[in-house]
Each structure stands twice: as C-alpha cells, then as structure tokens.
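Handoff note, outgoing to incoming analyst
You'll be picking up this chain. Sequence as last confirmed:
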Amino acid sequence: MLVADPHSPDFNTYASVIDLRAFATGRGYTVPADDGECGQMLVQAMDYLEGQQWRGQRSSTSQPLSWPRSGVRFDGVDLPGDSIPQRLVDAQCRLAIESQEIDLTPSVAGGGAVTMERVEGAVTVQYEPGTNKASPSFPWFFSSLRGLVVGGNQIRIERG
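Most recent structure output, in case you need it:
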C-alpha cells in the first residue's frame, strides 16, 4: 500500500496513484487502469529515486525516505524542510511511466549476451536484443531536478 504522507511512519512514496494519473493525462502518456499496477510502477520509480545523491540532509534521522530535506536552496530560496517539492513528485511519476518500457534498476551482469563474434581486420560483436543490463540514463532527470539532486556533471563541495 502506498503512503504519500511524509509524517506517517509508513511513508513510502512521494507520488500517489492520483498524482501519476494526473501527470500522465496532462502529458499524453498512458498508464494501466489497475491501481495496483500503477502502485507497483511508483514503487519501482521510488527505488530509482532512493538511489540518488540529494542536496542537503534529511530533515529527521528517523524518516524512511530521503525527502523531506533541510539545507536545500533552489534559485536562491531555502526550500521548506518539511515538504516534498512538486518537481520530485513529477519526476517519480515520469520514472513510473518509463518503468513500463525499461527496468529502472537492472542487475548489472557485464552486458548483453553475445550472439556473434567475428575477427577480421576489425572486430564485430553483436548482442542479443534486450539483454543489456546497464543502468538506464534519462537525459531529462538531472535537468528537471536541478538544484535538488547531485549529479549530471555536478560535484558536491563542503566546507570542513
């Protein structure tokens, strides 16, 4: 069961199924009619988000997820340490939609299954379709979460 209330000890998602449906409708994406399937997609997206390095620090050491966070400034404004930015909810929804076509957190097993190798002057290698287990890359991700996530050619600098 999805719990989108950051004050609940069972808090496990930033976006609800209602958020996902509104996001998809507004952008022309399709999502399953079954709420359970949508919930699974949101959980997969949450797994991806929890693997990111975020700016600031958790607002509470006992909170189950990375957000809410304190010490985060966006466009010169301190973000409230007790809320979830809408951009993060939208990113989870977009990742959930992406999860319909791609495994967001694949097990990396050294690449795809080789179906052909040939050595003549140059090397030719052909991989079986659908067997590449490299981590997915989403060009929109770091730009849409600019200022919230560390990454996308950014480095963290701290005073010691």
